[in-house]
Amino acid sequence: MKKKILIPTDFSKNAWSAIAYASALYKDKNVDFYLLNTFSVNTFILESLMAPEPGEPLYEEAKEKSLLGLDKLLADIKEKLDVNPNHNYYTESIFNSPIAAIKNCIEAKDIELVIASNKGETNDLDTVMGSNAVEMMENVRNCPVLMIPSNIAFKVPNEIVFPTSFKTHFKRRELAHLIEIAKITNTPVRVLHVNKEDQLSKEQIEKKALLEECLEGISYSFHYLEDTDIKNGLKLFVQSRESEMIVFINKKHAFFDSVFTKPMVKDLGYNAKVPVLTLHDLRN
Fold this sequence. Notes:
Radius of gyration: 20 Å
Oligomer: single chain
Strand content: 15-25%
Shape: elongated
Number of strands: 10
Low-confidence stretches: 121-130, 253-260
Structural class: alpha/beta
Helix content: 25-40%
């Protein structure tokens, strides 16, 4: 069975980086890639105060621009990428907000992973793709999201950093994409825990053992930091080791218990220099 991956695009150079990265990362896998471009009309029809509908000039003009962009993108992929014969590329042009369209596509196409650039047509944090990158990490909860920094070329990561509080009830299906990427790239996972107490509680020891079971079959190691918070601890760990990928579980409705707070997600979404894979606690 082929893997299904959704790649949102605004036809920018940064969005192209995500496509090239995805193609290289899964070069030896059978994959159906769905390239999604959303379009909208900035000017509402004043007489009705409603957005244009199919058949109306403003709608059709925006739709045509989107379709032409996707056609050119397919031609660029064929010309510029060393495309695996087992890779198929399909296009989706949708009149909707990016996040709503992504969620709908995930459900309609049974998408397993979203891969997107964390910057848009410019590197301004207020651009559509930039802000939507954070929204995807926070709100697209029915599918893992892999954010690719702007203008990054694919390379096999030296290690994957997985920060955890050891308070999550780990499940193999939640960690499936972390394990898959570790296996296909032959990359070790570094489990990072920032200590708040002198030692782990009984519950944390049990969760750590459960995590070890889930990671069986790949290379991994445990690492501990003290006298810092998770945000600074993660940054120091990644910078000092020049780690090349971060994976974390983004918990919902667990603000006080979560390893990552909303500002941390935003920091990763906007400022990450390495790919960041957002997984989800499926119980939430």
